[in-house]
Design a protein that fits this description.
The complex is a heterodimer. Chain A contains no helices and 11 strands. By secondary structure, chain A is mostly beta strands. In chain A, strands 2, 4, 5, 9, 10 and 11 form a 6-stranded mixed sheet that branches. The N and C termini of chain A lie far apart (41 Å). Helix content of chain B is 0%, strand content 48%. Chain B contains no helices and 11 strands. The chains are: A mainly beta, B mainly beta. Chains A and B meet through strand 4, strand 5 and strand 10 of A and strand 5 of B.
Chain lengths: 112, 114
């Protein structure tokens, strides 16, 4: 089955700087890669996703890049703000297969 | 409410007891998922329903775990003979349809087995 690895496990960034979180996946059949943000005591919430027919997707301060050959994808957050502090999870699936496999998470702390 | 609702939010039980966790998905969402999240880990897939039927139950760890969705809306996750290792947050999520991948998660049910 699919295996998703995520790095780093913790990340501290000065407010206004950029944050990058990286994930690798093992199953070449995976074609859907979402990122979820989880705040304390809440369920994960989708912030951005990308399908394998594109290499990059951007939504305001958030962008995701995908390298299918290397089987890795990254989340980029620019101009970080205190409210970006949370745990971020990458995930992967074959869109026809409903089983979404999550990474182990990155705890992002924005230092004011 | 507008979101996925899970009850109870917290459940403390003793080893060997039976537990039911309930999920009320967003109205009109056809797909429903159960995930389990242990401390410091990502959500781990348990089971997926499309309508009333379990389309994929490959994530259920053993036969003590069972889930139903009899009318294609509310789902119940049932755990028999609970063990301490079952302690985790059980997350439910729903999805609108086949053309979107977005899962809408509830806040979870925290299960503690003493």
């Amino acid at each position: 089955g699919e295996n998703v690895e995520q790095h780093p496990s913790t990340l501290s960034v000065q407010e206004g700087d950029s944050a990058v979180i990286k994930c690798t996946y093992s199953d070449s059949a995976s074609n859907y890669f979402p990122w979820y943000k989880q705040e304390l005591g809440k369920g994960p919430q989708l912030i951005i996703d990308i399908r394998s027919n594109v290499g990059e997707k951007k939504d305001q301060r958030i962008a995701v890049t995908l390298n299918k050959t290397a089987k890795h994808f990254s989340l980029h957050i620019t101009e970080t703000q205190p409210e970006d502090s949370a745990v971020y999870f990458c995930a992967a699936s074959n869109f026809g297969n409903e089983k979404l496999t999550f990474g182990t998470g990155t705890r992002l702390t924005i230092i004011p | 409410g507008a979101g996925v609702s899970q009850t109870p939010s917290n459940k403390v039980t003793e080893k060997g007891k039976y537990v039911e966790l309930r999920c009320d998905p967003i109205s009109g969402h056809t797909a429903l998922y159960w995930y389990r999240q242990s401390l410091g880990q990502g959500p781990e897939f348990l089971i997926y329903f499309q309508g009333t039927g379990a389309a994929d139950d490959s994530g259920l760890p053993n036969d003590r775990f069972f889930a139903v969705r009899p009318e294609g809306s509310v789902s119940t996750l049932k755990i028999q003979r609970t063990e301490r290792g079952d302690s985790a947050v059980y997350l439910c999520a729903s999805r609108k349809g086949e053309n979107t991948g977005e899962l809408f998660f509830g806040e979870g049910s925290r299960l503690t087995v003493l």
